[in-house]
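Sample entry (83 residues):
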Amino acid sequence: MTKPSTATFISPVISPVVSQDNQLQSTADLAKLQKQMLAAETYNQMLALIVDYSHQEMQLAYSLLSPAQQSRIEAIRARDSLI
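Predicted structure, serialized as tokens:
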């Protein structure tokens, strides 16, 4: 069995930029986003976070999760994805 692709969430690690709009302002913001990502029970709940966070912020938060946490998110994505 092959592992689901993480390309949906991961690209090269992107550093937070404090001075631009829609960028994480602190590590507390990053921790809050990670907590929300991990609390999501469906892929659509994770995608809904894009309202409050940019795609880059979500990529950064995802890239800093542990492998087990990333696997949980990927399992939800694979389960809920129509692709």
